[in-house]
Structure prediction request, 491 residues.
Amino acid sequence: MKTKLTGFYIAIGISFLVILVLVTGIWRVFLQHEDVEDIRTRIITPLDENPYVITAQSGQLSWDANLETKIPLENGEIVIAVLNRENENTLIEEQFVIYRNTANPTGAIYLTFLSYDENLKGYRRMWSEPTAASRSDSSNLFSQDLIGDRNFCIIVRGMNSNNEHTMTIFRRNLNRSIEEPFNKIADLQIAGSIIIQERSRPLAYQQGYSRGQSYTIAAYGQDSASSNILDQIETIYSFNPSREQYEQTNVSRIPGAQIEQRRLRELLSGVPGVFENFINDLWYFISPYGTIDTKQYLYFDPYGKEIIFFGDEAQQVFQWLGSSYTRFGMSIRSQNISISTLQRSIDIELESLDSIKLRVIEDVRIKIMDSSTSWDGSYRRAGTANFKESVSQIRPTVDAFYDSSWGRIQFNIAGEYSITSSGNVRSGRYVFYRVGDHDLLELRPNDRNTENRMVYKIEAGTTALILSSVRVGTNGIQDLLEPPVTLTPLN
Prediction:
């Protein structure tokens, strides 16, 4: 009997301990709820009308409505871009901000680091460092694992006051005090272009089991020892793990085409409008074998502020946001009009009087319509190509009049449209383009009070065009199931 009572008391004691642990745990969570909520990762909603920032995904951009920082910066410090990342160890959201000081408008753009301080129970500014960039209109901020050890680098890319391309790279410092949380591992500037040369990494790296190969950086500048302006020097920088720095490992000369130097100096003079006039045309891709690929082309419209990419049977229209003259041509910032978070930096270099070379950098690592097209390479002006109308696909602009339920519509060759109905005139810009097997029409009204853009799928009737309202995105073309509109041509 005594043994049974002892077992009974032991069972009661164990049950009491279990209940005590559970209650204590729940109570602790309840007490800490407010602190946990303060540092919870924030969801950023895409907005078309605001500057972009970069998320914790490898090199990807998202949108922040007001470029909000965790704490206010100092007076006179103007935010240019914000990057939000979760710390790999603590899962606390950290923030990187590039800014400029209004007291020194031509000075360096700075990177600062904001993180959560457990002692203060709030965010504070941990560290700041100048970068090689000084022009806010061309600067952007992103993160990427350059070394292959899953320790992401913070990269600030831009231009300085001499129109040189710059790239400053910081890496989290795991061996020093918290006072210096990041180490500058590269600080490059050159009157040419700078690109990160990515290499394929094994599946084991993608799954987190092994390291990946480090990426190299290539810088292209003028060959000062040559009399030909187009001759270039390629400098390769590789990461030295013992010094924790990117160091120069290879230099090679790239001969350029022999062009009449006076004409060349005119095109590369930096005079507004000269280089824009030169590229204002249709350009076909030149394959590595020297043949022209009429299924991949670019159309530059500097005056309509648009760039059209056609490849893999999909046509992408980008808005020309801004540009800067470089030693060998021009650098353009552009944004996709269908997917607002997709931006491209396009470095254009003059190869000859009928060819150019492109280096295209995607600011968001997504593919449109699963496109595998690489836009890097040489392009030849369509006027010198063996152009065939049968492969031209759809023209971006036309010169035509139509009648419709909207009213009388006029499209002009400059890419502008007007709709006249009951004495009222609505106007804007338009573009015809193609995605897969579908011809599309996009209207962008000038009136800011209306919808920003409208896309229609075109079906050809017997004597008219039938427009169906659609949405174009990464999932393809989605019919909005609205009543179709018929356009009847006017002779």
